Amino acid sequence: MMEELVNMIATDASAADISDQIKDVLYAKSAKRVDELRPHAAGNLFGTEAEAEVEAEVETEVAPEEEPVTNG
After folding, report:
1. Alpha-carbon gap, residue 40 to 34, rounded angstroms
2. Where are the alpha helices (DSSP H) in the chain?
3. Which of 38, 52, 54, 72 is deepest in the core (most CB within 10 A)?
4. CA-to-CA distance for 48 and 14, rounded, in angstroms?
5. Rounded to 5 degrees, what angle do the CA atoms 31, 32, 35 make?
6. What is the DSSP letter of 50?
7. What is this structure's pTM?
C-alpha cells in the first residue's frame, strides 16, 4: 500500500486520489491494531485469562516504523 502511495505522489496523481490512498492506509493500520487488541479488551471486560497470551502476541507483532522517503 505504501509503495502505491509513493508512486502516486511521484507521478503527480490528483490530490484527492492521494488523500484517499492515505486514508485507506491509515484505516487499514488502525483496523489491524483494533483486531489485535480486541481479545485483550474483551478479556479485561469479562475477566478471562486470555489476556497474557494476547499481550505476548501483540508485542511480537509490532513492526518497526517505516523510514520516510526523501528526494535527493
Report:
1. 10
2. 2-10, 15-46, 51-61
3. 54
4. 49
5. 85
6. T
7. 0.53
Reported as a single tens digit per residue, the pLDDT across 31-49 is 999 999 998 888 888 887 6
Amino acid at 32: K
Q: Is residue 40 within 8 Å of 54, Cβ to Cβ?
A: yes
Extents of the domains making up the chain: 2-61
Angle between helices 15-46 and 2-10 (to 10 degrees): 160
Q: Which residues contact 40 (CB under 8 A, 6 or more apart)?
A: 50, 51, 54, 55, 58
* Residue with grid cell 505476548, as numbered in its chain: 56
pLDDT at 51: 46
